[in-house]
Design brief:
With 266 residues, the chain is an alpha/beta fold. The protein is built from seven helices and eleven strands. 38% of the residues are buried.
Length: 266
């Protein structure tokens, strides 16, 4: 009888061990299946940015993806800090491109589309066709890179204009003092490009054509995000934190195939 009981006990132990092993293996498979879909939040954010970039056909319009991703990151971080208005517009002036290119982009992030793509001038002392020098100093006649918010409208020597508030200390926070604004200018035209081989230049303002200035000012309004880019500068900004931008972005269904591994973010 004792041997029989011991036999049953041994059989029970063996069966229990097999069941536990099978359960553990199954759990590991489920875990691996989940982890195969999971990705760090920053990677999911990059995937979302690439989706918008592709859907808006920004590559075809001449804008590089890293430039768009930087601008998008600042857009969300400025929104997170409640500094930007809650609208879907992001404007990029890409000074990586020559002045002869249509390097100003107004992008509707809600519709994944380009609202406006046109020429924009850089400062007289920033360079000829290529903007290479930048300054935050008054009377420098140079462009300033970084993130801006649009301010109030006014009528000045260039007609109807839109003030800009520089958000990056040391790079563009003297914009108000320098009267850096969006305005129309006759030297922003195909005729100027044909005559000079480059666009006309401003005193530091991101000037656009007189034909489009009213449309641009009406579209942007107050509190809209503008990013003036130059990739080879020693530029840094507190608004370029992708982790914070990814959390605030509340990534939409475009990337719902991914499981966001938020716990993986430090």
């Amino acid at each position: 009888m004792r041997k029989y009981v011991l036999g049953l006990s041994g059989l029970f132990i063996i069966v229990s061990s097999l069941l536990f092993t099978a359960y553990k293996g199954s759990s590991r498979k489920d875990e691996n299946k989940i982890n195969s879909k999971a990705m760090p939040l920053e990677k999911a954010y990059e995937s979302y940015a690439k989706h918008v970039y592709d859907a808006a056909r920004l590559q075809q319009a001449g804008l590089a993806f890293p430039v768009f991703e930087r601008a998008l990151t600042g857009y969300y971080n400025l929104g997170k800090d409640a500094k930007a208005a809650h609208n879907s517009l992001l404007t990029i002036a890409d000074f990586d491109q020559l002045s002869t290119k249509k390097r100003l982009y107004v992008i509707d992030l809600e519709k994944d589309s380009i609202v406006l793509n046109t020429w924009v001038a850089h400062g007289q002392r920033s360079g000829e066709d290529n903007a290479v020098k930048f300054s935050n100093q008054n009377d420098s006649f140079s462009s300033s890179i970084g993130f801006y918010l649009t301010g109030e409208q006014y009528v000045g020597k260039h007609g109807r204009s839109l003030r800009l508030e520089g958000m990056d200390p040391g790079f563009n926070d003297n914009a108000r003092l320098r009267s850096i604004v969006i305005h129309g200018a006759d030297y922003v035209s195909e005729g100027t490009i044909a005559a000079l081989g480059r666009l006309g230049r401003s005193q530091g303002c991101p000037a656009v054509s007189t034909e489009l200035s009213d449309q641009l000012i009406n579209t942007l309004g107050s509190g809209s995000v503008l990013f003036i880019n130059k990739s080879d500068q020693q530029y840094h900004s507190s608004y370029l934190n992708e982790k914070e931008a990814a959390v605030y972005a509340n990534l939409p269904e475009h990337v719902s195939d991914y499981t966001y591994a938020s716990a993986m973010v430090d």
